[in-house]
């Protein structure tokens, strides 16, 4: 297995550092528009693991926005798999480049949505992933696999949902992805600062687009941003966090393979974060269409959202200033295998202190990058397999969770997952 990793930002860097500890692959080409970032990742791997491990990685410059370039780099290096770790706005081009090069493909966020033109807060327009699923026949004809949404959310959350469907429930009322954290970022003086732990570009896209909900009798529909607030209890000391509806891939992916009356995604943003996002929207700073700006050298075109992203700390750099834990999981309600009501929360928690000590990577990007590495190992072993455009729900969840939780000394990843029964069964 030769993997072309597209993107050496926070998640791409974490992906490389995680896979460096594994032996199932032959080579990883770490590529980025800024090749210096790709080289820094490989240097860090060499310092941690030595020259023999670092020699299984190479750096390459790439333009993720050009499918021909992506295909050319993949062919040049004999890649068998393309791992997309760049912003979701580049999904169409990396996706097309992988298919053109005859590679299998993985991503952690699917193609972007477009709100309904006249009724965005009730009706769907172009949904997340529509562009990719529309090309499923092309991937099937080519005999290639595109595994989409294989991060943590989406990704691990979808694996949890499949596990619940297969092993815990006879009937499912709701699959509710719930994401929360108690992370704090401080400046040099110890003051808490606003510094999102994930790409602000992606966060704005998710949080200000109309949230998506699925109901079996109604299909997919939308609501206004930040709707249906609820307090949710997160485990391992995180505690109660207010969660609100957010547009996310799970609501698109889960109903394609799993039978549930309702599918939702709620994110624990917090009052301050919601206030910032509302202000950005009010000022038009969430826009992606370029605006003309006067500068000392003359007028330039720039997207307001790109300016916001450039002004905030890079999520890849805030790990040393961050404390706390992040939790990703799925809250499932319905009828258990004993035909009695059941309510379960399946989850995984990442502690920033541990991920920084072990991987020199902050916990949110580390938790995101862990899951495609596990998926690739299952694909390499032949435990997982398929063709076409598939989500994580299409594969055996137990195999994934067993490999994830097994101790490293036994060939696993040493990452136990949790399950809380929240209703007497």
TrEMBL record:
The keyword Cell inner membrane does not apply. The lineage of its organism: Bacteria, Bacillati, Actinomycetota, Actinomycetes, Micrococcales. One of its GO terms (molecular function) is ATP binding. Keywords: ATP-binding, Nucleotide-binding. Residues 3-146 form the Saccharopine dehydrogenase NADP binding domain. InterPro entries: NAD(P)-bd_dom_sf (IPR036291), Sacchrp_dh-like_C (IPR032095), Sacchrp_dh_NADP-bd (IPR005097). This is ATP-binding protein. The keyword ATP-binding applies.
């Amino acid at each position: 297995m030769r993997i072309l990793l597209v993107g050496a930002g926070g998640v791409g860097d974490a992906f490389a550092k995680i896979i460096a500890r594994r032996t199932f692959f032959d080579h990883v080409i770490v590529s980025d528009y800024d090749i210096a970032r790709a080289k820094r990742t490989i240097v860090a791997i060499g310092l941690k693991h030595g020259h023999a491990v670092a020699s299984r990685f190479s750096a390459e410059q790439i333009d993720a926005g050009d499918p021909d370039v992506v295909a050319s780099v993949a062919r040049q290096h004999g890649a068998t798999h393309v791992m997309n770790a760049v912003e979701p706005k580049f999904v169409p081009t990396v996706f097309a480049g992988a298919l053109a090069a005859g590679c299998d493909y993985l991503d952690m966020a699917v193609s972007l949505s477009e709100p309904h033109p006249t009724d965005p807060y009730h009706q769907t327009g172009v949904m997340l992933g529509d562009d990719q699923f529309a090309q499923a026949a092309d991937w099937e004809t080519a005999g290639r696999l595109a595994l989409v949404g294989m991060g943590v959310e989406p990704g691990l959350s979808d694996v949890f949902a499949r596990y619940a469907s297969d092993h815990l429930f006879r009937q499912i009322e709701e699959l509710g992805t719930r994401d929360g954290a108690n992370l704090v970022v401080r400046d040099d003086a110890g003051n808490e600062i606003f510094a999102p732990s994930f790409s602000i570009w992606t966060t704005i896209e998710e949080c200000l687009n109309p949230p998506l909900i699925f109901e079996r009798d109604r299909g997919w529909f939308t609501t206004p941003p930040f709707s249906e607030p609820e307090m949710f209890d997160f485990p391992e000391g995180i505690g109660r966090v207010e969660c609100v509806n957010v547009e996310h891939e799970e609501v698109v992916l889960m109903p394609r393979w799993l039978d549930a009356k309702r599918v939702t995604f709620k994110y624990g943003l917090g009052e301050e974060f919601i206030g910032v996002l509302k202000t950005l929207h009010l000022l038009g700073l969430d826009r992606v269409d370029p605006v003309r700006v006067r500068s000392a050298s003359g007028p330039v075109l720039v997207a307001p959202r790109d300016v916001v992203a450039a002004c905030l700390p890079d999520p890849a750099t805030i790990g040393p200033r961050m404390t706390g834990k992040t939790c990703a999981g799925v809250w499932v309600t319905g009828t258990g295998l004993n035909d009695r009501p059941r309510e379960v929360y399946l989850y995984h928690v990442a502690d920033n202190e541990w991920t920084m000590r072990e991987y020199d990577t902050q916990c949110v990007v580390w938790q995101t990058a862990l899951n495609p590495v596990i998926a690739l190992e299952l694909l390499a072993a032949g435990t997982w397999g398929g063709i076409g455009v598939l989500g994580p729900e299409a594969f055996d969840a137990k195999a994934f969770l067993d490999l994830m939780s097994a101790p490293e000394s036994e060939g696993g990843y040493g990452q136990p997952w949790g399950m809380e029964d929240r209703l007497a069964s």
